[in-house]
Amino acid sequence: MPDRRTAQEALDRLTVDVADWPEQGVTFKDITPVLADHHAFSAIITALAAAGRDDHGSVVVDKVVGMEARGFILAAPVALALGVGFVPIRKAGKLPRATHAVSYALEYGEATLEVHQDGIAPGERVLMVDDVLATGGTVDATRQLVEACGGIATGVAVLMELSFLDPRRLTGDLPVSTLLTI
């Protein structure tokens, strides 16, 4: 089974920086080469899933949520690895039934996220998964959505944390597991 270091090395080796995308001054971290490499992808899923286990390897969450869009790619296999359900956190207007919604600031704009009101049952423990922790706004909004459903956000697992943007000012005391800090 791959270890955390294998996942970190794969991220460092395969992530491609794309300057000035999606707008001038932003450096986009393209993880598609990581996803295309079976061994790298397996290693990162195993490493991210560790955030949903205790020190003895027992699963300590009931659901995994993934934030649109790259968080979906990571969170669904993490949920499978943990043997729990997956719940998508979508952009506004994408879910067909009654939702909870939260608006927040992004690194380069604003957004609104939604979750089905019945997506998380009261008392369920939830691991939040995304690709990049930038400003912390997406994680904070997602935690609010989990709590609006009555769930308990137990932590967040991400591939990369952009520490220069000080994202932990918005994540508060929420445990953050990151594979690579930039």
UniProtKB/TrEMBL annotation:
Subcellular location: Cytoplasm
Pathway: Purine metabolism; AMP biosynthesis via salvage pathway; AMP from adenine: step 1/1
A molecular-function term among this protein's GO annotations: adenine binding
Residue ranges annotated for the Phosphoribosyltransferase domain, each copy included: 35-160
Keyword terms: Cytoplasm, Glycosyltransferase, Membrane, Purine salvage, Transferase, Transmembrane, Transmembrane helix
GO biological process, one term: purine ribonucleoside salvage
Transmembrane regions listed in the UniProt entry: 71-89
Principal subcellular localisation of the protein: cytoplasm
Metal-binding keyword on record: no
Record's catalysed reaction(s): AMP + diphosphate = 5-phospho-alpha-D-ribose 1-diphosphate + adenine
Keyword Cell membrane: no
A single GO cellular-component term on record: cytoplasm
EC number assigned by the record: 2.4.2.7
Family: Belongs to the purine/pyrimidine phosphoribosyltransferase family.
Function: Catalyzes a salvage reaction resulting in the formation of AMP, that is energically less costly than de novo synthesis.
The protein's name in its UniProt record: Adenine phosphoribosyltransferase
Gene from which the chain derives: apt
